[in-house]
Amino acid sequence: MPAIVLIGAQWGDEGKGKVTDLLGERVDYVVRYSGGNNAGHTVITPDGQKYALHLMPSGALSPDAMIVIGNGVVVDPKVLLEEIDGLAERGVDVSRLRISGDAHLIMPHHRALDRVVERYLGSSRIGTTGRGIGPAYGDKVARMGIRLQDLLDPGILRKKLELALREKNQVLFKVYNRKAIDVDETVEEYLRYAERLRPYIAETRVMLWDALDRGETVLLEGAQATMLDMDHGTYPFVTSSNPTAGGACVGAGIPPTAITKVIAVSKAYTTRVGSGPFPTELFDDNGQHLRKIGHEYGTTTGRERRTGWFDAVVARYACRLNGVTDLVITKLDVLTGMPKVPICVGYEINGERFDDMPMTQTDFHHATPIYEELDGWWEDITKARTEADLPENARRYIARIEELCGTKVSIVGVGPGREENVVRHPLLP
């Protein structure tokens, strides 16, 4: 009964959607277990079509796999229905979608508060997408959340919304001088969503347990990444959920003993979106080169991504924290043509060397990277399909990453397309 977890090993945008799509034809279920429409996966199909997915699991593009949005996800129903309609218009079968009735809803007051609080924080802002994800998770923890199953009971929906808005409208109006949210309008809007979403709402835990009992393969797809984890990332510059491997159990209802493989995805360099410490960040021509050649702009927000050299301290931390069995390195082709390709192998903080993540956020913020420089390569690697096809210096670069992370590198991405990969070790038998 194999369950496989797929996570990001950096700050997100590593190419998890491509890996999910690569595995999608060989698994029976693809499950999204955390985050909301603040995430984004870009998938390019063999015929060159490009899909930007935000709430739907990337497995939606696989012809046979069931696709599941788990209880750990926060759902904006308007965004989800737009995504469903957009995929259906392009010929994608969305009837395979199931959504946990326990997934929490993003409501209008969540979006309003997210935007106004970020503006109020000014230079101290977190860098959220303004889509209401944090406030929705905040209400979930405060036991004031509204769940998808509540859409099926108009009386409960109204009662819960009235209770929530009793406080939220006071904050919006009296603290931030914003218009209060109307209960009647919101109930009417969300009941319209309910009619369309009703066929997709299910008890997904039992569905997944039964699938595992039958020996079927379940792929648990993380959004965001390890360094954005609420507990284990660069707090407070993190997301509001647990996108690490442990979060897969909570966010989908999968028992830990069912997980047989954890796949981590990392770029051959490092990027992040939003505020927060980033030791290897580049502000020179090399950083601009990585952004331009790597097309480093957010799938969801369109914001420029911050770019930097590969940080092996972060990657090793992610591998140990998640119990990674297989590492996937994407975008190796972006480094082609660079004379030197540095790897951060440690940090210097107040004259002391750290080979692991420092304990405090203050120390991490002041960390100076210690680099090891490797020779670059000039050959076009986009046609490489075996390790022997790669230039010697590219092979050395991957081997050094593998050594520093203590985890085997199984796949190397050499281009954006589904087939543009070097397979060193198969992810599935």
UniProtKB/TrEMBL annotation:
It catalyses: IMP + L-aspartate + GTP = N(6)-(1,2-dicarboxyethyl)-AMP + GDP + phosphate + 2 H(+). Substrate binds at T299, T300, T301, G302, R303, E304, R305. Its EC number is 6.3.4.4. The active site is at D13, H41, K140. Keywords: Cytoplasm, GTP-binding, Ligase, Magnesium, Metal-binding, Nucleotide-binding, Purine biosynthesis. The keyword GTP-binding applies. It is an enzyme of class 6 (ligase). Its cofactor is Mg(2+). Pathway: Purine metabolism; AMP biosynthesis via de novo pathway; AMP from IMP: step 1/2. GO terms for biological process: 'de novo' AMP biosynthetic process; IMP metabolic process. The keyword Ligase applies. GO terms for molecular function: adenylosuccinate synthase activity; GTP binding; magnesium ion binding. Binds 1 Mg(2+) ion per subunit. Mg(2+) binds at D13, G40. Belongs to the adenylosuccinate synthetase family. Plays an important role in the de novo pathway of purine nucleotide biosynthesis. Catalyzes the first committed step in the biosynthesis of AMP from IMP. This is Adenylosuccinate synthetase. It comes from Micromonospora chersina. The lineage of its organism: Bacteria, Bacillati, Actinomycetota, Actinomycetes, Micromonosporales.
